[in-house]
Each structure stands twice: as structure tokens, then as C-alpha cells.
Amino acid sequence: xxxxxxxxFALIMCSCVTAEKSSSAFTKSDEFSKVGSGxxxxxATVPALTAAxxxxxTMWLGPNKCLTASDADSNIVRMRDCDRLxxxxxxxxIATNRAGYFKIVAQITGTPRCLDIINDGVNNRYTQxxxxxxxxxxxxxxxxxxxxxxxxxxxxxxxxxxxDIVNDGTNDIPQLAACGNYSGQLWMIR
Length: 190
Hints:
Blueprint: H1 3-16, E1 43-44, E2 53-54, E3 56-58, E4 65-69, E5 77-81, E6 91-95, E7 101-106, E8 113-117, E9 127-131, E10 140-145, E11 150-154, E12 161-165, E13 174-178, E14 187-189
Antiparallel strand pairs: 1-10, 2-6, 3-14, 4-5, 6-7, 7-8, 7-10, 8-9, 10-11, 12-13
């Protein structure tokens, strides 16, 4: 992807957050903010992700399963076989004007969509791709460890709930679960 495409994508992203009108709504950062969740002392400051695209894989499911936004017309997010041509697996982590938080945005045809937590009033843990906005379920903190894996939490649910692939038999639904020492909560972002 050319630098012009990345810049154009970042400019499109700025227009998605209408409630955040500051000129720094989406900025590149050289480092993550130092974050710690008490019981995760092994997590430290590492280089931040930029507007380049990445794949998100878990330690548990391994290198052949990627976080995937189904398509531009769907809000479905699942773990699917990795395919470098699948636009729904090309995700950007873009810094926001909230220190230490990022938007995780899918590069799929049409309007950019952000990884979000469904506010269903009951579970408040399932993921979706939704129109980008100033919603606390779309602000993700990425805590990286020395091992190269990261934990993802949201501003809305806090640092006690991590993005996880729960061992439920289908093993493909990303959702928030209580943070713990689980390989389904350890993400490789490349």
C-alpha cells in the first residue's frame, strides 16, 4: 500500500469522529502510553502502531487465524483463515486524542468501520464493526508485552475486560471476557 493510500485512509478516518473535532483526533504516536493493569507487570511501553495495516492473531488460535470484518455491509467480526487478499483482515490501529487509546479500523470497501463492543444492556461484551464515532466501546488500549503479544481492552469496559476468543466449540467469536492468563487474550499484531 502506498503512503498516499495510507494518508488518504487516515484523512477518511478523521471525518468519522465528528464528536472529536480537535485537529489531533487521529495522530500518529511514536510510543504507547505506559499502561499497567496491576496484575500485568510484564506489559511495557513499545512502539505504537501507525496508520499502516496489520493482522490480529491470537496465541491460542495461532498464525493461521485472523480477526476478520466480514464485509462493508455487515457488522460481523470473526476469526477466519488468514488470507492476505481478504480486505476484512487488514486492520489499522489509529491513535486518537485520548491518551493511550486507538481505533481499530477495517480496510473494507465502503465507509471505514471501527471495532466496537455491542451495548446490548445485558452482556456488553460482543464485538461488531460499526460506523466510527465517539463511542467508548471503540477506544481500545493495546498493552504490549516483551513476548510480542498484546492485550486489548476498551475505554468503556475498562482494563479488567480483555478481547478474547472464548473456547466455546466454534472458537471464532471475539468478545470481551475477564482478563486472565489466557492465550485467547494474547494478540499478535503484525
